[in-house]
Amino acid sequence: MLVQVTFWDVTLSLLKGFWETLEIFGVTLLFALPLGLIIAFGSMSRFYPLKWLCRTVVWIIRGTPLMLQLIVFYYGPGLLFDWELLEVPTAVYLTFSINYACYFSEIYRGGIEAIPKGQYEAGEVLGMKKSQIFFRVVLLQVIKHIIPPMSNEIITLVKDTSLARIITYYEIIYFAESYIRTAGLIWPLFYTAVFYLAFCGLLTLLFGAIEKKLSYFKA
Amino acid sequence: MGYFEVKNVCKRFGDTQVLRGIDFSMEKGQVVSIIGSSGSGKTTLLRCINFLCDPDAGEFYLENQLLFDAAEKRSLSDAAIRSKRKNFGLVFQQFNLFPQYNVKENLCLAPKLLAKEEPDFKARKKELYAAIEAHAAELLEQVGLTDKADSYPCELSGGQQQRVAIARALMLSPKILCFDEPTSALDPELTGEVLKVLKELAQKKITMIIVTHEMAFAREISDKIVFMAEGVIAEEGDPQTLFDHPKSPRLQAFLAKTEV
Ligand SMILES: Nc1ncnc2c1ncn2[C@@H]1O[C@H](COP(=O)(O)OP(=O)(O)OP(=O)(O)O)[C@@H](O)[C@H]1O
Ligand SMILES: [Mg+2]
Fold first, then answer.
1. N or C: which end of chain A has fewer CB within 10 A?
2. ipTM for the complex?
3. Alpha helices (H) in B20-117, listed in sequence order
4. What is the pTM of this model?
5. Binding pocket residue ranges, ligand 1, CB within 6 Å
6. What is the pLDDT of residues B87-110, one digit of tens each?
7. CATH number of this structure's domain B1-87+175-260
């Protein structure tokens, strides 16, 4: 028995699903942005064990599919140690945060390393403290450098959220797919593209505006 | 003893001994030019004087007082180095202006941060900042860039950027201002405006150490020329004697090469 649904029903339900998608997006950014910075400093550290630990973790995370990581984080602890499974949202947030922190860390590192040594030295000979040099001289230049790659990565994150489905996190694609089973409808699945497009369009505008705001100087 | 004395400064990078015992002294208000072929250690010496690289051995004396002794550098805190370094200024070959700040902000940033360390900063903030801005305006006029106060570095020519960098270094009124090839990164037609500023500073009796490849300029402006070769001072003296009657074969060869 297939149920009858209206366009309005589908829209409402997809909005709910997209809210779940945005939760992954928001939580991931919240944790991955600062964690990435910590990993970036770790992988630039002069303390070799820390440096190699950070670089190895980044290599593993960036070298394997996010989908596989989700499965490992969700099922791994149970299979290996007989631990209880993580809650699905917890496993998703954890995996996404670590995964994106690794990508962000490489972007941060590139941005920090792109700042010429002369900028630090100019600050030093002018009697500035190390922290003043970082916050007053270097930081804005780093931000300017990393905005384009960060915007790419963040837009990728919007779409990567759909992978969470693999461990039964119910996000927009899952909501849309359920109409195939319950109502024999495929169009809700296509309809999800509108949500992604609208949101990514918004982000593109936002990053464009930031880039424009920082275009008054060349670094 | 001279106003500023460098004693037995040595520095090595890995296996290369870059400075092998540099000694020289200068008087207040003098201009000393350092010449020498590429790789002879001129930049390294300036960097040591400005605490950008720490010498393995050697001492600096300023105004008859021991300012730095490489033997006890480990015990120096960041704060101590910062306060010693205030005696010196350095103008880089590549200007190193802060790109996100306009000319006025480039000049005022460091002095304003330093003003915050004044004990009565809170009460006198307005007054301190006003004095800093007035000083900046004065220096910009001196280097002929009053009309560029609100421009960003990317909007300036190389020569203008270097003049801003000179004004920025002067903001902290260093006792000794060092220049590392201030015109080497400039197109030939832009070197004149920077050299003119340096000449004016010399007339104002600003104490300067200038590393340069501009021989005619060095001869004109300097009270003393120091010729470096392979990490030592091979010859030094007043410009006439040194350029017209070089004693060491190395200086003779160097001058023959540069005059062609
Ligand atoms: N940080 C460093 N690490 C290793 N070697 C260095 C470093 N800085 C300088 N050197 C070496 O020290 C030597 C002297 O360099 P320095 O830059 O002081 O020469 P210079 O006289 O300023 O030359 P130039 O006229 O080309 O500017 C060079 O052989 C250089 O390769
Ligand atoms: Mg040099």
1. N
2. 0.93
3. 42-49, 78-85, 103-115
4. 0.88
5. B 13, 16, 18, 36, 38-44
6. 999 999 999 999 999 999 999 999
7. 3.40.50.300
